[in-house]
Amino acid sequence: MIERELTVSNRLGLHARATAKLVQLLSPYRCNVTLIAKGREVNAKSIMGVMLLAAGQGTPVRLRVDGEDEAVAADAVAALFERRFDEDQ
């Protein structure tokens, strides 16, 4: 299992477009991916789950990845967060 601390840094936070990008990124991976924020724990492969986090800019998020391709998936998610979901350019 891999855990990482991330911060939502894009201006609009985890809104619909950013969440869809995250879920689409994770769809080919076989591991379980969980996001934890504001006391909630959700399946990161679920658009509705991630939207329920209501994570705005600056929200700290813990990423937990467990399974067969966990390292690659964790790196991909961290890179997406670091790129601000390709929105703030």
Automatic annotation (TrEMBL):
InterPro entries attached here?
Answer: HPr, HPr-like, HPr-like_sf, PTS_HPr_His_P_site, PTS_HPr_Ser_P_site
Tell me which Gene Ontology terms the entry assigns under biological process: phosphoenolpyruvate-dependent sugar phosphotransferase system
Q: Which residues form the HPr domain?
A: 1-88
Q: Where mainly located?
A: cytoplasm
Asked if the record carries the keyword Cytoplasm, the reply is: yes
Subcellular location(s) of the protein: Cytoplasm
Q: Which UniProt keywords apply?
A: Cytoplasm, Phosphotransferase system
One Pfam match, by short name? PTS-HPr
- Asked if the keyword Plastid belongs to this entry, the reply reads no
Entry GO CC: cytoplasm
Q: Which domain of life is it from?
A: Bacteria
Q: Which PANTHER family match?
A: PHOSPHOCARRIER PROTEIN HPR (PTHR33705), PHOSPHOCARRIER PROTEIN NPR (PTHR33705:SF2)
Q: Which family does it belong to?
A: Belongs to the HPr family.
Write down what this protein is called. Answer: Phosphocarrier protein HPr
